[in-house]
UniProtKB/TrEMBL annotation:
Pfam family, one: TetR_N
Domain of life: Bacteria
Domain called HTH tetR-type: residue spans: 7-67
DNA-binding region per UniProt: 30-49
Protein name: AcrR family transcriptional regulator
Keywords, ordered alphabetically: DNA-binding, Transcription, Transcription regulation
Length: 233
């Protein structure tokens, strides 16, 4: 099998597994069913993915790639906080539209998160939080802000997926969104002289984007670390 042929077969298997996952959930993705759906012999599947876990990791990466396409399509506006809201709403919509994918992507710590698309999705969120910090509107460090948004959003979607569709309260997702935004941002208010954490977060974000030439790399990293600790104090 040539490299090009192997890649085409791999893609066919991933797409077949993705369709089975969407239709019947994780239990429907057996190596036998995927091989049959893709018209491929089982030994070929094992040669390309190692085992079922390897296949599921590839399927989760495929899901992250689909999600990332939608995320990129949002673009950026002049208001990073509003961009965070739009990104949150997209995340919730994706999870409820593709629940089986979401459970695999975010419910299984081994599947997909380490893929290039999974890491890029995380970087997109961090970039939005970084922009909020650069605008002087972040109360915590970029890392903590991104982690809070990610953890809260994931918990909200998993909770909604586990709730019967006719019993879901979509206001719950909006309320959680506004709660986490209010907890990490200044709410658009001007910073006071004593608002040290927000100022520290903004300066740390600025230094990450535009390092100071007078500082060595080690000094720069140390200063940013101190500023992050002040922001999270």
């Amino acid at each position: 099998m040539t490299e090009k042929s192997a890649e085409a077969t791999r893609d066919r298997l991933v797409r077949a597994a993705a369709e089975l996952l969407a239709e019947g959930g994780r239990d429907a993705v057996s190596t036998r069913a995927v091989s049959a759906a893709a018209g491929v012999q089982a030994p070929t599947l094992y040669r390309l993915f190692g085992d079922k876990d390897g296949l599921l990791e590839a399927v989760a990466a495929h899901g992250f790639a689909e999600y990332l396409t939608d995320k990129v399509a949002l673009g950026e506006s002049a208001d990073p906080v509003e961009d965070l809201r739009r990104g949150w709403d997209l995340h919730v919509q994706f999870g409820l539209t593709h629940p089986a994918f979401y459970l695999l992507m975010y419910g299984d710590p081994k599947a997909g998160a380490s893929s290039a698309a999974g890491k890029e999705a995380e970087n997109k969120l961090r970039r939005i939080v970084q922009r909020i910090a650069e605008a002087g509107q972040l109360r915590v460090s970029v890392s903590r802000g991104a982690e809070l948004v990610h953890a809260t959003g994931k918990g909200v979607v998993l909770t909604l997926i586990g709730t019967p569709e006719d019993e879901r309260d979509m206001e719950f997702a909006a309320a959680a969104r506004e709660h986490v935004i209010s907890s990490i941002t200044t709410g658009g208010q001007a910073l006071g002289d004593t608002d040290v954490p927000a100022r520290a977060a903004g300066l740390a974000a600025a230094l990450r984007s535009d390092p100071v030439a007078a500082l060595s790399g080690t000094e720069q990293a140390l200063l940013v670390e101190w500023l992050d600790r002040i922001a999270d104090a």
